[in-house]
Amino acid sequence: MRCDKGTESAVIGVLQQYFRWQDDDEFAGSKSFFQGRSSGNQRIEAWWSKLREGGGGWWINLFKDLRDSGNFDETRLHKECLKFCFLPLLFQELYLVAELWNTHNIQAQKRLEVHGVYNSQNYLITVDVENVNVCKRLYTENCPDYADGIDESVQLIKPDYVAPAKAIDALRLYCEIIDVLKNY
């Protein structure tokens, strides 16, 4: 498996090597994972580009501006308030981007033959189900969108609170909450 040097690659690399540790082929164990440039990974790069064009870049800039203006820091409280105010809107937007991506037309290719079928080899390796279950226990978590009690805290701070329908509403709510919390 080849991955770029993204943050998720460390976990993927550990899992890949764990699943392949007892195999005896030339790509077993530590040889089953390689980190390097993914210049051939055009599909995911195209998707990231579409995500940025489709509004993701705007959100990234908004959160950078919040940080740069001093209205966001790395404390858990700020992170939880940010998630409380913005996650529902971000989920809506990500859903729309995924829908657009999954329903976009794909151009027909000039060469329509399927690559690699003739005289090919199946590289499928079976994995022990118990090993999969171990990894599920270690690497998955059912985490809530935000910490327990944050919604009750917002109700105390702002009793007339209404879930934001637009980014400007979420920003306003976030700033109001943070302003109140600065005084405590």
Distance between the termini: 50 Å
Quote the average pLDDT.
85
Estimate what percentage of residues fall within beta strands.
under 5%
Number of helices: 6
Overall form: extended
Largest sheet: 2 strands, parallel
Helix-strand pattern: EHEHHHHH
Number of strands: 2
Task: Compute the CA-based radius of gyration.
Answer: 23 Å
Going by helix content, strand content and strand pairing, the class is mainly alpha
Low-confidence stretches: none
State the helical fraction: 40-55%
Neighbour order of strands in the largest sheet:
1-2
Give short descriptive properties of this protein.
184 residues; mainly alpha; two-stranded parallel sheet; 6 helices; 2 strands; Integrase core domain-containing protein
Describe the protein:
InterPro entries: Integrase_dom_put. It comes from Acropora cervicornis (Staghorn coral). Residues 2-115 form the Integrase core domain. This is Integrase core domain-containing protein. The protein is an all-alpha fold and 184 residues long. It is built from six helices and two strands. A two-stranded parallel sheet has the order 1-2. The longest helix is centred in the middle third of the chain and has 28 residues, at 76-103.
Question: What order do the helices and strands come in, and which of them pair?
Answer:
Blueprint: E1 2-3, H1 9-19, E2 34-35, H2 42-68, H3 76-103, H4 129-139, H5 150-157, H6 167-182
Parallel strand pairs: 1-2
Helix pairs in contact: 1-4, 2-3, 3-6
Condensed summary:
This protein is mainly α and 184 residues long. It has 6 helices and 2 strands. The model has no long low-confidence stretch (mean pLDDT 85).
